[in-house]
Amino acid sequence: MDIRTLCADDLELICRHREAMFRDAGKGDDVLRPMTAHFREWLRPRLANGSYFGFMMSDGGTVVAGIGLMLIDWPPHPAHPLQDQRGYVLNVFVEPDYRHRGLARALMRLADEEFGRRGIGYAVLHATDKGRPLYLGMGWNGTTEMAKTPEASPEGHGG
């Protein structure tokens, strides 16, 4: 497997991976199509300026897995009392024919290394049901986070 960092030319590939990840989690095209269109425009400047970063894995020149990473502004917290940022892991995806070969685990190790290189001592992610066993097995723990779409919010603008 070849490993490389993300670049601006990966925009469409990241969008495809993200959509496939959510489709695997049971989401339908009625949500995924508009989400992907909006995500594409959200991602474009962040990928270009490096605030969205990560890795791709290739087999024989074909990308088969990827991971996205970000640093998010966060006030000091008991989990990181001297830091005002958290690492954020998103869009972990492995092509179906390459699953159960350790690629997602390898990507998560790269994420740990990259966060460490950037001086980040605490990271979060939102796990799908399929991904949860991997993350738990790598030392990730559940948090107290909860989510809600506010009643006054425009449709589709919630978590």
Automatic annotation (TrEMBL):
Transmembrane segments: none annotated. It comes from the Bacteria. One of its GO terms (molecular function) is acyltransferase activity, transferring groups other than amino-acyl groups. It holds the Pfam family Acetyltransf_1. CDD domains: NAT_SF. The keyword Coiled coil does not apply. Keywords: Transferase. The keyword Transmembrane helix does not apply. Residues 1-159 form the N-acetyltransferase domain. This is GNAT family N-acetyltransferase.
